[in-house]
Amino acid sequence: MFDILKNQQLMDKEIEELLIPAEKVAHVQLNNPLEHALLVLVKSGYTAIPVLDTKDKLHGLISKSIILDSLLGLEFIEVDKLQNKIVADVMETDVPTIQQDATFARALTLSINHPFMCVVDENGLFVSILTRRSILALVSKYLHM
Ligand code: AMP
Predict the structure, then answer these.
(1) Is the pLDDT assigned to residue 69 strictly greater than 60?
(2) Beta-ladder partners of 77
(3) Does 48 contact ligand 1 (Cβ within 6 A)?
(4) Is the pTM of this model over 0.85?
(5) For 26, 32, 45, 129, which has the most beta carbons within 10 A of its beta carbon?
(6) Quick check: CB of 5 below 6 Å from ligand 1?
(7) Keyword Magnesium on this protein (predicted)?
């Protein structure tokens, strides 16, 4: 069964055809209030989305759980922080990224720990995302060929 993973044709395959382009990716800006980010996350149904600056450079990820965590005081949920704090204050900055010419094998390895990865160009500009779902779908296609 796992001969699939020794399939050089698959492992060397470029990830380009699996990518979701930036214009179809929900994102927020560094200086958006947490309230805006939470609205985008809840309305889109995504767990986490990229954080960009005005020039489309990738700076981090923001998620529902990061936002909820940032609202927790010692005894209360401090809802006013939704308006008083911005995305840059709380976002995750340790973000898994890959380049557009990465191999499928590299993406597969990264997807073990990350439901999606951001694809950036050589200047750190955000280009697209690659989801674990699309990686597994391709593996499944090869398995059933
Ligand atoms: P999925 O494989 O569609 O369940 O997506 C996994 C995760 O990737 C989602 O929870 C989001 O964090 C992210 N994601 C997928 N598609 C998008 C998109 N169009 N815009 C923003 N984030 C996305």
Answers:
(1) yes
(2) 72
(3) yes
(4) yes
(5) 129
(6) no
(7) no
